[in-house]
Amino acid sequence: MRLLFIRHGEPDYEKDSLTEKGFREAEYLAEYLADVKIDRCYVSPLGRAKDTAAPTLAKKRMQALECEWLREFAVKVVRPDKGYPVNCWDFLPQDWTYTKEYYDKDLWAKTDLMKDGNVSEEYNWVTKSFDKLLEENGYSREGNIYRVKQANRDTLAFFCHFALECVLLGHLTGISPMTLWHGFCAAPSSVTTVMTEERREGIASFRISRFGDVSHLYVKGEEPSFYARYCETFDSDEPHG
């Protein structure tokens, strides 16, 4: 089985939609995916994800199942340097890297700060909902692997959000999402590909074969968005890279 995690295009957060650039990205994405085999599509209930999915769904004459758990992973915690609630994935390096639990897939959500925000509750809901969907498609989680009830070569596409994507990738690969949130960046409209490895009968694991692909933008001469890249320096607001 193959999974495609697709981040929404450049967002207009105020309108929960896309910017003009974001709509272009969605069209270029649809052109790219037109010839890609996709068997089933799932989409976040948020407007920016649905607006990103719309051109692809129209071009492929498909419908997407809207899943509440695919919404942005927007649990709030009180970040040490802020003193008021912010998204649990929005930390500065010095405020989380000294806490070893954040690097542990089983402990990252059990620090006092994360417990105060009930982060585990949201994480468990999202990952259990995801596993239920995978089980419906033939793959049942058992510990850190998946039992293959019905092997297949289907492709499932998820139009969602970067923080949520990292939660699911961490769940599949045994990595703390804190590491993914802060060590990786999937640009708007990017495509991340995950494949099952099934070399032993009845047992599957998931491997990321391509992360944050934006080749559909480059072939159109469209620069990737800077959203979530944080590539400015302290002494300048001008982004680099």
Short descriptors:
241 residues, alpha/beta, eight-stranded mixed β-sheet, 7 helices
Task: Indicate the topology.
Elements: E1 2-7, E2 11-12, E3 17-18, H1 20-33, E4 40-43, H2 47-60, E5 64-66, E6 76-78, E7 85-87, H3 112-116, H4 119-136, E8 139-142, E9 145-148, E10 155-160, H5 162-173, H6 177-183, E11 191-200, E12 203-213, H7 215-218
Parallel strand pairs: 1-10, 4-5, 4-10
Antiparallel strand pairs: 1-11, 2-3, 6-7, 8-9, 9-12, 11-12
Helix pairs in contact: 1-2, 5-6
Characterise the protein shown here.
The chain has helices at 20-33, 47-60, 112-116, 119-136, 162-173, 177-183, 215-218, and strands spanning 2-7, 11-12, 17-18, 40-43, 64-66, 76-78, 85-87, 139-142, 145-148, 155-160, 191-200, 203-213. The protein is globular and about 45 Å long. The protein has an eight-stranded mixed β-sheet with strand order 5-4-10-1-11-12-9-8, with helices on both faces. With 241 residues, it is of the alpha/beta class. It is built from seven helices and twelve strands. The mean pLDDT is 94. Helix 5 packs across helix 6. The two termini are 34 Å apart.
